[in-house]
Amino acid sequence: AFAVHGACGAWGVLAAVLFDWGTGTDYFNGWSGWSCVGGASSCVSGAWSEAFTANVLEIVTIAAWTAGWSALVFVPLRVLGF
Q1: Residue 28 forms beta bridges with which residues?
Q2: CA pair distance 73, 12, nearest whole angstrom
Q3: In this predicted model, what pLDDT tens digit does every residue of 49-64 receive, in sequence order?
């Protein structure tokens, strides 16, 4: 299950920021289409690194969430002998 859901899911999150080029490196696809990071009137330069960091943090958070809940379920099962 990890090979499909974990590794491919993490690659999908990374690929979203790596290949979401749009109009330039400071533009990302969202609910309203391609928009500049920082708003319509003022663009933030160098936003790609912030987007990449946010996606890596998302992967780490999902992994920690999954590990925590898995431990919460499987450790008691192991202790009870199941």
Answers
A1: 35
A2: 27
A3: 888 998 999 999 999 9
CA-to-CA separations, 53 to 10, 13, 77, 79, in angstroms, rounded: 13, 11, 36, 38
Higher-scoring residue by pLDDT: 16, 43? 16
Q: How far is residue 79's CA from residue 8's CA, in Å, rounded to a whole number? A: 32
Give the predicted TM-score (pTM) of the model: 0.77
pLDDT of residue 1: 83
Q: Please tell me the distance from the alpha carbon of residue 47 to that of residue 82, in angstroms, as a whole number.
A: 49
d(CA 67, CA 74): 10
With tokens 């925590």, the residue in question is 68
